[in-house]
Design a protein that fits this description.
SKP1/BTB/POZ_sf; alpha/beta; single chain; about 350 residues; Potassium Channel Kv1.1, Chain A; BTB domain-containing protein; about 45% helix; four-stranded mixed β-sheet
């Protein structure tokens, strides 16, 4: 067990991270009054009627914080004790995430104010050059009160998350889990539903609902294109055709038949789309982004009844449809007022300490 001395006169020993690394927790010798001044949580914990308060029998004052990350805690203790050599100059996403988890737990986000902007620039620079893609960025934005960044990160979850099989979300073999890796493909994935710190407590419930509604809208385009070409009629012949090229009536039906057959062939020969149920979004394991890409490929490679019928192919219509969907407020302006208020409060806490 290693020991870091923050205050040689301190009589409080914090034992950090025993749950994370049972064989190598870190003990910090600190001044309890410094912690008391910094955090109301520590004030209550250390100087209230709790097990963590100072022993009355003069035995060593040791407080275990087994779930906290030692490196992040060391940085915060360095700030509290003016031991700035312990405070990292260059920041990584993982470390900033761990620091903010501790700040939120002990209600002391304001202590990182002098470093917050430079640390955030470091993390954003790493993301821009592709060094890291992590859902932790959403929580970082949430804790620092960056509303625009938080909304952008959550939107990625809505558009790029996927399940690992085609069972119903919440009842299937994946146990309702939702995965994300920054690309929408099942590789190196994060289990979003298994992360404790992302934002509001109900965030993943909302992401799952928005993802399903988005996928159902995309599936609705396919349903509509099929319905246009299979409208009810008599004698097995549709009442009207979807072909937009004026000319012989029978040519319109032939155009529809060719396009309809091409759609089904494209779906059946696509391993990601084969077996898809266009009426049940919960059975779709693909992300919304990947689903759109696969449909785009199907529509792009359709044939029709001669060159004069090229405009009957729904490829261009699908592109316009997707552009409208991607920019729709339902999947852009999904933050609730409570979310905005909480992030505004975080900004105020940080700015108040300037």
């Amino acid at each position: 067990m290693s020991e870091v001395i923050l205050d040689t006169d301190g009589d409080l020993f914090l034992r950090i991270g025993s749950d994370l690394s049972p064989d190598s927790p870190v003990t910090f010798r600190v001044d309890p009054f410094t912690l008391r001044r910094t955090s109301g949580v520590f004030k209550s914990m250390l100087f209230g009627p709790w097990a963590e308060s100072k022993p009355l029998d003069n035995s060593p004052w040791i407080v275990d914080l087994p779930e906290d990350e030692p490196t992040a805690f060391e940085a915060l203790l360095g700030i509290m004790h003016n031991r700035y050599k312990l405070v990292p100059v260059n920041m990584t996403m993982d470390l900033l995430f761990d620091i903010l988890v501790i700040c939120d737990k002990y209600n002391m986000t304001y202590v990182i104010t002098p470093w917050a902007n430079s640390w955030m620039r470091d993390v954003e620079a790493q993301c821009k050059v592709g060094e890291t893609k992590s859902p932790k960025m959403a929580y970082i934005a949430w804790e620092l009160g960056n509303e625009v960044l938080f909304a952008g990160e959550v939107r990625k979850f809505i558009f790029e998350s996927y399940t690992m099989d085609d069972h119903d979300e919440g009842e299937g073999g994946d146990g309702g889990k939702l995965f994300w890796d920054g690309s929408g493909e099942a590789a190196g994935q994060y289990d979003l539903t298994g992360l404790c710190h992302l934002g509001p407590p109900d965030l993943m419930k909302r992401v799952i609902e928005l993802r399903l509604s988005l996928i159902q809208v995309i599936l609705g385009f396919l349903q509509n294109e099929i319905k246009l070409r299979t409208g009810p009629g008599t004698g097995g012949i549709p009442a009207k055709h979807a072909c937009i090229e004026p000319g012989y009536y029978s040519a319109g039906f032939r155009c529809d038949d060719i396009i309809l057959g091409g759609i089904w062939r494209g779906i059946l020969t696509n391993e990601k789309l084969n077996g898809i149920d266009s009426k049940n979004a919960s059975q779709v394991c693909l992300s919304a982004n990947v689903l759109a890409v696969e449909f785009r490929g199907v529509f792009k490679h359709l044939y029709t009844y001669g060159d004069s019928h090229r405009d009957c192919i729904p490829a261009a219509k699908f592109e316009k449809f997707i552009q409208n969907i991607w920019g729709h407020p339902q999947w852009k302006d999904f933050l609730r007022q409570a979310d905005k208020d909480r992030m505004a409060h975080q900004r105020e806490k940080i700015q108040a300490s300037l």
